[in-house]
Amino acid sequence: MNINTRKGDIKEMTIKEIEAKSILRKHKKIDSWFISHYGMNLYRGCAHNCVYCDGRSEKYNVDGEFGEDVTVKVNAIELLRRELKPKRKRTPL
Fold it and tell me: How many folded domains does the chain comprise?
């Protein structure tokens, strides 16, 4: 897949598909912006290649070049269904 950069250069982007083991990750404390206990990423890497992005951090384990290589979790929907089921709180109406 080719994408255009801001300078007008054409940059090659590699998209790799993987079967992930899990999709949800529990926050250590409630996210103050989204007010959530969990987060998820459907892919690793990013085509936007923003210089200020914290996704460039080594802790995110992005294979290859951050702005050029994207790994998509193709089984994300199935994982989300499976992982949300036990977390669902059942309350009477």
Answer: 1
Instruction: Give percent of the chain with pLDDT exceeding 90.
Output: 24
Tokens of 9: 């250069």
Please name the residue that has the structure tokens 């300078």. 7
Per-residue pLDDT of 31-70, as tens digits, reads: 788 888 888 988 888 878 788 887 777 656 677 777 788 8
Asked whether residue 93 is assigned to any structural domain, the reply reads no
Phi-psi region of 61 (alpha: psi -120 to 50; beta: other; left: phi over 0): left
CA dihedral over 19, 54, 62, 72, signed as positive or negative = positive
- What is the number of residues in the chain? 93
Q: Confirm if 73 and 18 have CB atoms less than 8 A apart.
A: yes
Q: Is residue 39 part of a domain?
A: yes
Look up the domain containing 34 and give its range. 2-87
